[in-house]
Amino acid sequence: MKASKSIGAGLLSVLLVSSVVGCGNNEKNTASSTPSSSAPSSSASSGGEASKTPEKTDTKKEKVKITYSMWGSAEEGNVTQAVADKFNASQDRIEVEVVAIPWESYMTKLNTQATGGQLPDTGMLKEDGVIQWSSEGMLNDVSAMYEGSDSKPLDSLAYKYQGKTLAYAAANEVLLLYYNKDMFDKAGVAYPPSALDKAWTWDEFVATAKKLTVDKKGKHPGEDGFDKDSIVQYGASVENLPWQLETWALSNGGGFYSADGTELRIGEDASVEAIQKVADLYLKDHVAPLSVGQTDDGIQRTIIAGTVAMATNGAWNVGTSLNTAKEEGLNYGVAVLPYMKDKVTLNTGGANVVFSQTKHPAEAMEWLKWYNSEENNWGLISSGIWMPTLEKWYTDESLTRKWVENPNFPPYDEYKSAVVDYARSSAARPAAWFYTNHTTDFNTLLGSVLGDVWTGKTTAKDAIAKNLDALKAAHSGNN
């Protein structure tokens, strides 16, 4: 998922208009208040007089009004308000008003409101801002949001800090391996495995990539006469945006952070070695094009451009770019990631939060639960931009088929194994911003530090060692 205008909570478009189905799940939130439903009863007056007819009393309580902030244009705000209006009409206790703020000024506006004690009740927050805002006491614990429900979000989709659940991702996204089936067929090479128990090792991945890398003379890496400067088709590309790069450090037995997010691990040998292996795909193995980890358009530059046989990136690419490419003739497939020592993929998703300044946390949670439901985001899910968050969509075959059996996805069995089952397996781990702070500063610095590693001017070991103190300072918020 992009660390800028996040797909999980921020991709708002006219898709939302067609995505609303009825009034959502309408599950009763037992934490919310219920209105009085009876009028005062009449009684006989003293002295034997006939009882008087009581005056009519209006017992209907006024709706609790809550505000929901989002980044987007006024038009996008109107689209989201239309969704909120359906929620408002579905019950008589809560009324939601949507406040749209331009992306460029969204966080500035929220910070100003926070200082003045005027935050909205609930709203969007960037993935990398959730832990920071919680550390400053600005977010409510939402762990009660799904109490009494028939399903709750996957555990890996909960933002947590100091034992509290601060938010659930509004959508799920996992990192995958995409590949061009025609390139594999032409080379006579077996497709990457879609089943986790058959995942390739890193060495198998590199060996396959060599078979699919071809220079102008038709030579492959390792063959006599192969020219690394005249490659016409690369076998692989591993996305090296900093947040995605952590996948390989974890897979190699290292990581960027400790499990609780308090300590930095990027300086460990296993972490450094993993980064170097990714760099060596270009530098030594000659199976990948040069990428400096600065732009989030990896699938467009590789699989869709027709220059690379297989590439890693997020599940959202199915809906944001691959559907169009498929209509134009791209024959692509999806598989699980290879692994170094442990099988790992990262998941992410933008957050909707309840701000601590609200006077109506229960009502805010009820709105978010309704708004986040799959039924109310169906256009985004069925197109392949979002994945569901509730566990039942991964375990109930009828729901899984409703989700996956449509022309926007690869074949059902392939996608179910490589994406649906993968997302709830032990390999799926939350991206760092689900549990640690200052990831923006850390990732920005790391991206800069690794620039010369990708081009071979220095090694990952030397680059990390030279900048380890600065990376620690960025992680602690003291850079």
TrEMBL record:
Signal peptide: 1-23
Cell cycle listed as a keyword: no
InterPro entries attached to this UniProt entry: Bact_solute-bd_prot1, SBP
Biased composition (Basic and acidic residues): 52-62
Chain residue ranges for the region called Disordered: 25-62
Lineage: superkingdom: Bacteria
Keyword tags: Signal
Biased composition, class Low complexity, residue ranges: 25-51
UniProt keyword Signal, yes or no: yes
PROSITE patterns: PROKAR_LIPOPROTEIN (PS51257)
Protein name: Sugar ABC transporter substrate-binding protein
